[in-house]
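Sequence design from tokenized structure. All designs in this work follow the same two-part layout: the structure record, then the generated sequence. An example of the structure record is given first.
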């Protein structure tokens, strides 16, 4: 399966909401995505690892 070159060129750059690191190609599978106040926020590996307790602490207790 090949990706459409135009679709990948026009793809939105994914940026870490905390430190501003930009992902090279799409969203890396190791990044964390959080849906907060109606919008998506992505966090790079380093920021997600450093703030794991805070990220997990915001989960609804139904998800524990």
């Amino acid at each position: 399966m090949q990706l459409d070159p135009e679709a990948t060129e026009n793809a939105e750059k994914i940026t870490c909401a905390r430190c501003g690191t930009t992902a090279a190609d799409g969203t890396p599978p190791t990044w964390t995505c959080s849906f907060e106040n109606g919008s998506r926020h992505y966090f790079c590996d380093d920021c997600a690892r450093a703030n794991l307790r805070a990220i997990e602490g915001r989960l609804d207790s139904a998800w524990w």
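Strands lie at 32-36, 39-43. We note this feature because it recurs in several other targets discussed in the main text.
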